[in-house]
TrEMBL record:
Residues 80-106, 162-201 are annotated as: Disordered. This is Pyridoxal phosphate phosphatase, putative. SUPFAM superfamilies: HAD-like. GO terms for cellular component: cytoplasm. GO terms for molecular function: phosphatase activity.
């Protein structure tokens, strides 16, 4: 299993920038210079890369301020994505799959934020606009975790209802199975409905996960 490091402050991002520069080779002059200034000990930075294969970055104030990317961040992320995983995890990955993509053989990057104004798709669009390639699977945001929580609560309620039907032992086994099948079909057609007091990004993420979301920003049309 690859190790995990959460960079919740700009200092950690700066250390990773120098680490990527030390392990992945030369990049643009401006990126290399920024990385060199951010960390004086490339030996320690290289050791960090050897120890960890997964990096989780906070976004606001760590990668960017508002709509501006911080100096050296783009080059640092590019080099991390091009840096191979440690030998131990690489051999583990190869044993699990005979063929793997180049991205799976390199360091993994995730973007963590408690900013709920955007959906995962919105954050990917912002990252792309800043010159950073990313997918929705790399974005960990509160709008997505909210959607997953609502769906998990619905699933839990459905399981409790199924157990309640099973406890009513007066009917035959066939009747119970028919009732459960009918209930499952009905539940699959039901979409959770929530009233949202929040931004459009939260609404978008809920809807993309099959949740009927109404409400939203002040003044929005129902």
């Amino acid at each position: 299993m690859p190790s995990l490091v959460v960079t919740a402050a700009a200092a950690a991002a700066k250390t990773a920038a120098a680490a990527a520069s030390a392990a992945a080779g030369p990049v643009s002059a401006s990126g290399a210079a920024a990385a060199a200034e951010l960390c004086s000990s490339k030996v320690a930075a290289a050791a960090l890369l050897q120890q960890f294969d997964v990096f989780v970055f906070d976004c606001d104030g760590v990668l960017w301020h508002g709509s501006k990317l911080l100096p050296g961040i783009r080059e640092m992320l590019q080099q991390l994505q091009q840096t191979p995983r440690s030998s131990s995890s690489s051999s583990s990955n190869s044993s699990n799959s005979s063929s793997s993509s180049s991205s799976s053989r390199n360091k993994s990057i995730y973007y963590l934020t408690n900013n709920s104004t955007l959906s995962r798709r919105g954050f990917v669009a912002k990252l792309n606009k800043l010159g950073i390639e990313a997918t929705e699977q790399q974005v960990l945001c509160t709008s997505y975790s909210t959607a997953r929580y609502i769906l998990s609560q619905q699933q839990q309620q459905q399981q409790q209802q199924q157990q309640h039907v099973g406890c009513n032992g007066s009917s035959s086994t066939n009747q119970q199975q028919q009732q459960q099948q009918q209930q499952q079909q009905q539940q699959q057609q039901e979409r959770p409905r929530v009233y949202v007091i929040g931004e459009e990004g939260l609404m978008e993420e809920l809807r993309s996960n099959g949740i009927d979301a109404i409400g939203g920003p002040e003044g929005a049309k129902p």
